[in-house]
Write a structure and sequence with these properties.
By secondary structure, the chain is mainly beta. The protein has helices at 64-68, 219-225; strands spanning 5-7, 11-14, 22-25, 30-32, 39-42, 44-47, 71-75, 78-79, 83-85, 92-96, 99-102, 109-111, 116-120, 123-126, 131-133, 139-143, 146-148, 153-157, 161-164, 167-169, 174-178, 182-185, 189-190.
């Protein structure tokens, strides 16, 4: 049910079929693993909770149990084939202490139109783009997160977002493409791009640049180190 805490013990969770399957989540729940190095979901996570309607009592007061049903949490797990969160009206989405990986032909972590979204202490490795914020209203805060090895861009975002104490590097195209600009806080290490020198004129639209001269990141090795290989 909405608001439930689903705990996943240490281990690798995989379907006995090929090719890769989707794991569909249709309720706003809290999915909690034993640690991103301990619990691995060997599927592509798809979250589509729609409006997640609020339940009311006869007296019109909001049911306290439904408040939890207005939030979604992904905690302490690895997702070997990425994740997509569809457009929703939830109050908040927290993605904390997770790891995501994806092949170069699919985006790694995709978040469509949402309200408040926190991505904290995560590793996002590979994918066509690393982290994609497709929405036009999403309030995204990226904190203490590593985004590495995307084939194109580490971050693609339509709206203004905050990035704090995070790293984006070794991407094949741009470090970041930020249509609405971004606010950098703390100690960030962002792969530079050709437009960064003109940030004042371009409203902070940093586009990232080519991979560093020391070579592209070994995505396969990073995935193996995360128990995803």
């Amino acid at each position: 049910p909405a608001g439930a805490v689903v705990r996943l013990a240490a281990g690798r969770y995989a379907a006995a079929v090929d090719p890769i399957v989707d794991l569909d989540v249709r309720r706003p729940v809290f999915l909690v693993g034993a640690g991103r190095d301990e619990t691995t979901i060997d599927a592509r996570l798809r979250v589509d909770v729609g409006g997640a309607a609020v339940v009311e009592r006869d007296d019109g007061d909001r049911n306290p149990a439904s408040v939890a049903g207005r939030r979604l949490g992904l905690w302490a797990a690895s997702f070997a084939h990425g994740c997509k969160v569809a457009t929703n009206t939830l109050d908040r989405i927290d993605v904390v202490d997770c790891a995501f990986a994806a092949a170069k032909d699919v985006d790694c972590l995709v978040i469509d139109d949402s309200n408040d979204v926190l991505v904290a202490r995560c590793r996002i490795i590979g994918g066509s783009d690393g982290l994609v914020s497709n929405g036009t209203t999403t309030c995204l805060h990226i904190y203490d997160t590593e985004i590495r090895g995307a084939a194109c861009r580490g971050i693609f975002a339509n709206t203004l977002f905050v990035i704090e104490d995070s790293t984006v590097d070794h991407c094949g195209g741009y470090g970041m493409k930020t249509r609405g600009g971004c606010e950098r806080r703390g100690d960030c290490d962002i792969q530079p791009g050709p437009w960064d020198a003109h940030a004042d004129m371009m409203s902070g639209m940093g586009f990232g640049g080519p991979a560093d001269d020391d070579g592209a990141v070994d995505v396969a090795a990073l995935m193996r180190s995360m128990g995803m290989g």
